[in-house]
Design brief:
The chain contains nine helices and two strands; from the N terminus they run H-H-H-H-H-H-E-E-H-H-H. With 282 residues, the chain is mainly alpha-helical. It has one domain. The protein has a two-stranded antiparallel sheet. Strand 1 and strand 2 form a beta hairpin. It is globular, with a radius of gyration of 18 Å.
Length: 282
């Protein structure tokens, strides 16, 4: 119990430092500078993907980081001159996240048999994190209200994650994905979705959904929360296959950078597409 309290204090302390910095960066940095900050975080996450994928420390892991940098450079080039390619790519990644979330919840085979999939993890992860980077940069640059949209996404994910944690601890009885992440429960998921629905109601109450109405706002927030859970489960799957508890040790109480942004990686493209085509454009 004392160890649990110590971890919780560390989580809260780290969050109290990181949250104001993240909010300030989103609200006050110009789009290109925020893109650079986010790219730095994504490259740090790539080093942790390399660790989960079994690459040796040193040049092998930095090689994956360079690969990640190349993916981001390609994304920046597309942003500058060929934006028509971006939305289909983001739609593909969004569908992948929602699909993989369902697969991991239904999974009953031991993770250890999937060691052969590590090369696919190493090849594909930089594209998934690159898609999240693109989505956040596009969302942040989406007119004068872009920074507020990114902040809304962050608040949605934080709210769902916090609600899942405390609801699961208080009422959790039924495992959500016992093979992949034994600590997650259906009750925790219900708490996350309830928090997401409340965020949708708040969006409508503050008049931020245009003509889309309450239903569209709630539906978007719930789907985004489901995607965020999928991102969390996928990282849990990779960590369990690698035999580690955390992706890194950068953030006290939270693990590595990847542990902190796994939900955002999956949720960002889903939120962007939903906002552009279902809520914000309505």
């Amino acid at each position: 119990m004392a160890e649990t309290r110590a971890v919780l204090r560390a989580r809260v302390g780290t969050a109290l430092v990181l949250a104001p910095l993240a909010v300030a960066a989103v609200l006050y940095l110009p789009n290109r500078w925020l893109a650079l900050v986010l790219a730095t975080v994504v490259v740090m996450a790539a080093l942790e993907w390399a660790h989960l994928g079994g690459l040796a420390p040193g040049w092998p892991r930095w090689g994956l980081a360079a690969y990640q940098g190349a993916v981001l450079a390609l994304g920046y080039w597309l942003l500058a001159g060929h934006p028509g390619w971006l939305l289909p790519f983001l739609a593909l990644c969004s569908g992948w996240w929602l699909g993989v979330g369902a697969v991991l919840v239904l999974r009953r085979a031991p993770v250890q048999v999937e060691q052969r999939l590590r090369p696919l993890l190493l090849a594909g992860a930089p594209w998934l994190t690159g898609a999240a980077w693109l989505a956040l940069v596009l969302l942040h640059g989406h007119g004068p209200g872009g920074p507020m949209l990114v902040l809304l996404l962050m608040v949605l994910i934080w709210s769902a994650d916090t609600a899942a944690y405390f609801t699961g601890r208080a009422f959790g009885r039924h495992k959500l994905a016992p093979i992949v992440s034994p600590g997650k429960t259906l009750e925790g998921l219900a708490g996350a979705l309830a928090a997401a629905a409340a965020c949708g109601l708040a969006l409508a109450a503050f008049g931020l959904t245009g003509r889309a109405g309450v239903g569209a706002a709630v539906a978007l927030c719930v789907v985004v929360a489901l995607a965020s859970v999928a991102g969390d489960l996928f990282e849990s799957y990779a960590k369990r296959a690698a035999g580690v508890k955390d992706s890194g040790h950068l953030l006290p109480g939270h693990g590595g950078a990847l542990d902190r942004i796994d939900s955002l990686i999956a949720a960002a493209p889903v939120f962007l597409l939903g906002w552009l085509y279902a809520v914000g454009a309505a």
